[in-house]
Write a structure and sequence with these properties.
The structure holds 2 protein chains of 2 kinds. By secondary structure, chain A is an alpha+beta fold. Helix content of chain A is 27%, strand content 24%. In chain A, β18 and β19 form a beta hairpin. The C terminus of chain A is likely disordered. Helices cover 16% and strands 19% of the residues of chain B. The chains are: A alpha+beta, B alpha+beta.
């Protein structure tokens, strides 16, 4: 895995905006005096070998399979309390698992240095984002900057194909015509709007009728005893870019969790088990010394972790919030802010995230977001950070596969280290 | 590894165009035109942070309103809504213009409550991760 500096396209903002990626720049951090930084960062790219991609793909498929094993384990032994899953969610989890309610997608965050096997940092199983930039924006970048080269990316095709396989399972499916209606709900945020609109796009290409709405606009009809949209139409199939643990704690949570309701939810309730970082400890208990896992425990750092360093993560935190990194023998400590942690923590041995030379005396630490679409690995995106935690100020950097690449063919490789892509 | 077909987008194209035009319905959540934008406004229809409409208040009295649809106008450093419909906080939203009517009774619509989801997403920004 190599990181290359590259001159951004002069009009890159206009080009990614034309694709709908309007959140290409992250605003300055409040009170920190920091300048806005590009979220979409094409002042660099990562180059992987075919062998790298094979290893990432295999690791992703393997981790997906082991995660399904872990769900079965949690359900068999009713380990819900250990994971902080509320009792009122258990029936929905078990019923959706028994019914094999299908999943659309998930994103494994992997550490991979090109040498050791990729290891799982965590699994965004319920509400993963950065999908559109991985599926479409980096592909458009590749086609313009490196035409003819390849990328680990069949996300778009796989999404459409997966929606098509899910279609008969949706409520209202009629084989003679007229796709089922799927409501897509999200919070009032541009990034989430883009993700959901893209998913609607792929769903509609698979023959589904889609309706978008804000999560807060979902209604409950007390007479009909069902969730409805702004037009009072019954919601029978719901894609929600809204965490299960949030929904479960809210007034309409029981309606979403009612396994007897004629409501098909994507992602299904059993994903609550996997979107919980406690699953890292469950996986290690089940598959200790697995090459794609690192030691993790719910019971505080082990002696080995204390010696070699560990990361403490809240069970339900998002975007790197409330993460504490403790170096070996307490030599250093990094903490991020946030309001998570009351639900408990998982302790994970520090994983070997590579530090790539950024060419300006600093390093960047890439984390690979490897996607499961349906039941198979389908592509990847890379987010990098100069710090130690991949958070909401990390940058998305495109990638290429170094198949038959001849650098003499491309004059765009001249590094411009004064440019930060901004 | 490589895609076998060209990427074709329809809804995303609409989203991109809406963002390029800076249309006020950018965040409506629907580009098929059947869902209205909702803004929290004060008595003068001046846009205020959404939290003003969602934060619990003693006695349930809100000096703010939800504004659906319409256009945003910038004036004097503030943004004002116009051309849409204003409702009390907690009241059901108006039926979107052009939507099918008569399919359900008014009584049925009155039996609908909203806002039972989404509270934890307020103020956090993205819900994805």
């Amino acid at each position: 895995v190599r990181r290359h500096a590259i001159t951004p396209r002069p009009d890159w903002r206009a080009k990614v905006e034309a694709l709908g990626l309007v959140f290409h720049t992250t605003p300055a951090a409040d009170g920190a005096g920091a300048a806005p930084v590009p979220y979409w960062n094409e002042s660099a790219y990562y180059e992987l070998t075919v062998d790298d991609v094979d290893r990432i793909e295999r690791a992703t498929d393997e981790l997906h399979a082991r995660c399904l094993d872990a769900v079965q384990h949690v359900i068999d032994r009713k380990l819900y309390a250990r994971l902080g899953i509320p009792p009122h969610a258990v029936r929905a989890i078990e019923r959706s698992w028994e019914a094999e309610a299908p999943s659309l997608y998930g994103r494994f965050d992997l550490a991979y240095d090109g040498t050791a096997p990729p290891v799982m940092l965590e699994y965004n199983a319920d509400t993963p984002t950065s999908l559109y930039e991985a599926a479409v924006v980096q592909w458009a970048w590749l086609e313009e900057r490196f035409p003819g080269r390849d990328q680990f990316n069949s996300l778009h095709d796989r999404l459409i194909a997966t929606w098509a396989t899910l279609r008969p399972a949706f409520n209202g499916f009629n084989a003679s015509g007229g796709g089922p209606v799927v409501h897509f709900a999200h919070v009032e945020d541009t990034e989430d709007l883009v993700t959901v609109t893209y998913l609607r796009d792929t769903a509609s290409q698979a023959g589904l009728t889609t309706v978008g709405l804000h999560v807060g606009d979902i209604g409950f009809d007390h007479q009909r005893r069902e969730l409805v949209d702004l037009e009072d139409r019954a919601i029978r199939n719901l894609f929600k870019l809204y965490p299960w643990e949030w929904a479960a704690a809210e007034e309409f949570g029981p309606m979403l969790l009612d396994p007897d309701a004629p409501l098909h939810v994507i992602e299904p309730a059993w994903k609550m088990v996997l979107s919980n970082k406690g699953i890292l400890a469950v996986l290690w208990e089940l598959f200790e010394d697995h090459p794609n896992l690192v030691p993790a425990t719910l019971d505080g750092p082990t002696e080995e972790m204390a010696t070699w360093g560990y990361v403490r993560k809240p069970l339900l935190s998002r975007e790197g919030a409330n993460v504490t990194i403790v170096d070996g023998l307490g030599r250093g400590r990094v903490e991020t802010g946030g309001d998570y942690g009351a639900e408990g923590y998982v302790y994970q041995a520090q994983a070997p995230i590579p530090a790539c030379d950024a060419g300006d005396g600093t390093v960047r630490r890439p984390v690979i977001g490897s996607w499961i679409i349906g039941q198979e690995a389908g592509g990847m995106g890379i987010r990098e950070t100069a710090g130690h935690v991949t958070d909401n100020r990390s940058q998305f950097v495109p990638h290429v596969i170094d198949t038959w690449y001849d650098p003499q063919q491309y004059d765009v490789l001249a590094p411009d280290r004064s440019a930060d892509g901004a | 590894m490589k895609k076998s077909v060209c990427i074709t987008l329809t809804l995303m194209t609409g989203l991109a165009a809406a963002c390029a035009d800076d249309r006020p319905d950018e965040a409506s959540g629907d580009f098929g035109g059947d869902v209205a934008t909702r803004q929290c406004v004060d008595r003068e229809n001046r846009v205020v942070p959404d939290e003003e409409c969602t934060r619990p208040r003693s006695g349930g009295m809100y000096p703010f309103f939800f504004y659906y649809g319409g256009r945003a106008l910038a004036a004097g450093g503030a943004t004002y809504m116009t051309g849409g419909t204003r409702t009390d906080v907690g009241a059901p939203p108006p039926r979107a213009a052009g939507a099918a009517s008569g399919a359900r009774s008014a009584a049925g619509r009155g039996a609908v409550s909203r806002g039972g989801l989404g509270a934890r997403g307020m103020g956090r920004g993205v819900a994805g991760g």
